[in-house]
Amino acid sequence: MPAAVHVVDALPYSPSGKLLRSLLAERFAAKTAAPAGSVAAPLTPLGDWVAAIWSQVLGHPGLLGGDDFFLHGGTSLQAAQAVALMQECAPDALLYVSSVYDGPTPATYERFLRDRHPDLCAAILRDRVLTPAPVTPVTEDTLRVFNAALRCPAPPVRTGPPNDRAAFILSAPRSGSTLLRVMMAGHPALFAPPELYLLSHRDLATRQSWFGRAHASQLEGLPRCLMAATGMDADAAVAAVSAAEAAAHPVGEVYREIQALVSPRILVDKTPFYGVHPETLAATEALFPDAIYIHLTRHPYGVIRSFEKARLDQLWWPRLTGPSGPPSPFHPRQLAEMLWTQIATTTSAFLQGIPVHRQLHLRYESLVADPQTAMEDICRILDIAFNPNLLSPKGSEAQRMTDGLRDGSRMIGDPNFHRHTGLSQSSAEAWRADITSDFLSDRTWAEAIRLGHAERIDDAGDRLCFEL
Question: What's the predicted TM-score (pTM) here?
Fold first, then answer.
């Protein structure tokens, strides 16, 4: 039985005639009445804890195990509020708004927490954290399953004149791209917004459909970009993007309008997802024939450790498989390694066809060890004068766009960015404390060595570990 029936004058379609289901859901979710009766489902103390927080946020006391957060009037902003309250119990546990969509009842969210966040469960229940099960290495069979699950969105097609020169930071996630973007944003000749997620999609309607309601918060980089470029407030920026999505605004025109707003500054686009598919990178060259590419790489162990700690599998798997893809069959460590290898090999192959004067390979380890040399190299390839502001990631939040879309919103990009006090070489070596033996596949090692990340670690099977 449907939860509600709405009578409308017309349904929203894209210019190509495709029904915009995500727009329908967004329009009518808030109007959907809560079910007539609450659904009883047995809850443990952990589920009761979830239900109590959701009841507080929704102003709907007495939620039961099967009660749906959104059918009881919950909005995306309230989901973000619920996540923030739950995370207060364990600040190091990273929860994302999409998790409420994946587990919209206290009972299903309880299962999500037990599967994905044993540390948070332990903090809630004041219990011991269980020793995680061993993770199997990535094999050729694992890679075949990974490659078969990948779905490539339709990249943009150039329909007008070429866009002005822009710079693109190409990297795997957790490679220091947020740090580099924020440092570059300190230069008055550069405009470096958070992730735009534009190049992977033909227009803004297909982009919105790909991410859906559950992951809509990942698209806040574009309205935040408009706020910085025009001075408009968050509501106006969100309304402008929504109107462009409804009109299926082509991505090439979106770039052209942004560049016109920030000219003569050079646009810097930092979106790690671009490196997954060769079709996306090829579209970059079609739209920006004079583009500059900064290939930022980090030792795969550093990426894998950081990816796991940030729980990024919750966000990245839906990006890779599309809005209706199956759940991930991989451990986060396996997904992080395969993602690192996929992006590294795709980006390297693409850059082989790019003139050397339009590309720069920068290792994260070199960036934090010698930031001045790294920034001088970037200025040289961009043909701009060096500026001392490049050497610090701290400064005006408004200029560097290190704040959220709204007051209290999480920063777009690295969720742990504000925990860092500045540049630290130790961050490049932090993986040594957690990874005690080599486990990377031969394919990953071959690419890592080619990119200058050849350092391996000895087997630490005879290491004695203990707690104080």
Answer: 0.78
